């Protein structure tokens, strides 16, 4: 009587748990990255509010109007990342044109799809950093010159 060959079955049985472990590790990394991104976004929002509070009363209307027209929102950025992340559309929306061109050139490799997954998780931080740069620029150009003259 010949014993059955379990070597092929055991390799198949081992592949599923290894895949699950790898998936769980990636999931933990993404959740940690999301938590860090949300924390930094909250800090940046606080800084944005500090800049806006420091604008002189006679200039606040101009600063608010320009800021509201140039700031980026999280929802459209996430939708663009979900729909066209492989092509770098979310990066064009946030003004990162060079990296968007690279993602578009290499979309066929699948690497930009993985990058867009991490972009999606980091999007709260990325959008808040963009908005913070806008407010800093407005503050330096419109509000700060008046404060420096005094």
What would you say about this model in short?
The protein has six helices and no strands.
Give an account of the 3D structure.
This protein has helices spanning 7-53, 60-70, 74-84, 89-93, 97-105, 111-149. It is mainly α and 150 residues long. It has one domain (7-149). It is elongated, with a radius of gyration of 23 Å.
Characteristics of this structure?
mainly alpha, 150 residues, elongated
Secondary structure layout:
Blueprint: H1 7-53, H2 60-70, H3 74-84, H4 89-93, H5 97-105, H6 111-149
Helix pairs in contact: 1-6, 2-6, 3-6
Give the radius of gyration: 23 Å
The helix fraction, in percent, is: over 70%
What is the multimeric organization of the chains shown?
single chain
Structural class, from helix and strand content?
Answer: mainly alpha
The number of distinct helices, counting runs of at least 4 residues, comes to: 6
Anisotropy-based shape: elongated
How would a textbook summarize the main sheet? none
- Beta-strand residue percentage: under 5%
Q: Estimate the mean pLDDT confidence.
A: 85
- Secondary-structure element string: HHHHHH
